[in-house]
Structures are given as structure tokens and as C-alpha cells.
Specification:
Low-confidence stretches: none
Order of helices and strands: HHEHEHEHEHEHH
Protein name: SIS domain-containing protein
Organism: Streptomyces pseudovenezuelae
Number of strands: 5
Number of domains: 1
Mean pLDDT: 83
Distance between the termini: 21 Å
Structural class: alpha/beta
Radius of gyration: 17 Å
Strand order of the largest sheet: 2-1-3-4-5
CATH superfamily: Glucose-6-phosphate isomerase like protein, domain 1
Helix content: 40-55%
Strand content: 5-15%
CATH topology: Rossmann fold
Number of helices: 8
């Protein structure tokens, strides 16, 4: 993301409901995993796996002292020979139960097989959260959703950064060493404006 897009991000955050919307959604995510303590399952689509969101949530889990935020990335193309953290396949969704949270991230809407798995997980008692373009069937299944319409001021990747930063925000005065949401946004802006790393 270049400096022009970062400037747009700052303008958008100051002038719209995006900041409030991402904080509300992140609050629902954090509240679900903290109160239930059953784990966070993160899944995308066959074409889009939310690697970056998984990595940022792992960071936020460490920074906020909330290990429940560290997700299990559920992959469509997982193989038994993959490293353990990348080897969790869609069969994990069939085992989702009450107390677990399922976050579905999809830029174009999930396919029918994924929708069926999400529906089954919800029927088994899992809390379902949806982040994407607002696909009707998924939104109707979700306990909480954040819609990122095509052509909106922010793209899905940027919204995922905001959600992960807000999810790590502590609702009470932060203990020493914990970062506030404003600090996380500042760090995010710095990351987005930094020059690309040199290629070896």
C-alpha cells in the first residue's frame, strides 16, 4: 500500500464510520473468544486464504496478553505433509462446537460447500463472524458481520489490518507495555509507508 492510500486511509477514518465499525466488529470477535475460550477458527475461500489476518491476530494475541485471539488457520488446500500450523483442513469445521468462534473472510463470497460447512458449525453451536462483501447467505448465518462493499473507501486487506489492531485493544486501562489502539494504528501507518525490503 503506497503513501497515497495511507493518506486516504487517514482521511476515511476521520470522516466515516469505518473506525467505529471495525472496532465494534473486533469487539465482538474479542468478546466471543475471551468469554468462550474455545478457540478461533479462521477460514477464507479456495482462492483467498487470510494469511495476513492470521499473522496479525497472532501478534495482537501476544501484545494484548489474549492468547485466545491467536487463530487456527483452516485451509482449503491443506495437506498432511504441511507444517502443523498450515495442515488444518476443512474437516476442522465439521468438528466446530459451542464455545468456538468461526471467522469467515471472503473477498467475493464463499462457495456453496463452504456455506454448508459454516451452517453446520453454527448449528453445532459455534459463533460465526463474517468479513467480506456482505454475501447474503453468509451474513444471514453470521452472529456478527462487517461488510466491505466492492468499490468502498477501504479494501478488504486494509479492513483486516484495522480489525486485528482493534481486536488487540484492551477494554480496561492497558497494563504497562500493552499498546493502545491509537498506537497500533500509528504502527500500521508506519508499516504501510515503509519502503519495500531489499531483494536478495
Amino acid at each position: 500500500m503506497d503513501a497515497v492510500r495511507v493518506a486516504l486511509l487517514r482521511e476515511v477514518l476521520a470522516g466515516t464510520e469505518w473506525l467505529g465499525a471495525t472496532r465494534r466488529f473486533a469487539g465482538a470477535l474479542r468478546g466471543s473468544v475471551v468469554s468462550h475460550g474455545g478457540g478461533l477458527l479462521l477460514v477464507g475461500t479456495p482462492e483467498y486464504e487470510p494469511w495476513h489476518l492470521a499473522a496479525h491476530l497472532v501478534d495482537e494475541a501476544a501484545w494484548s496478553g489474549t492468547p485466545e485471539l491467536a487463530p487456527t488457520l483452516v485451509r482449503h488446500g491443506a495437506h498432511a505433509s504441511d507444517p502443523a500450523h498450515l495442515a488444518v483442513g476443512l474437516g476442522r469445521l465439521a468438528a466446530a462446537r459451542r464455545g468456538e468462534t468461526l471467522l469467515v473472510v471472503s473477498p467475493g463470497g464463499p462457495d456453496v460447500p463452504l456455506l454448508e460447512r459454516v451452517h453446520d458449525a453454527r448449528r453445532a453451536g459455534a459463533t460465526v463472524l463474517a468479513l467480506g462483501p456482505g454475501e447474503e447467505q453468509l451474513v444471514s448465518m453470521a452472529h456478527e458481520s462487517l461488510t466491505v462493499p466492492e468499490g468502498s473507501e477501504l479494501d478488504l486487506d486494509t479492513v483486516q489490518h484495522l480489525v486485528s489492531a482493534a481486536a488487540g485493544e484492551t477494554p480496561l486501562p492497558a497494563p504497562r507495555g500493552h499498546r493502545r489502539f491509537r498506537d497500533r494504528l500509528s504502527r500500521l501507518a508506519d508499516q504501510l509507508t515503509a519502503p519495500p525490503p531489499a531483494r536478495w
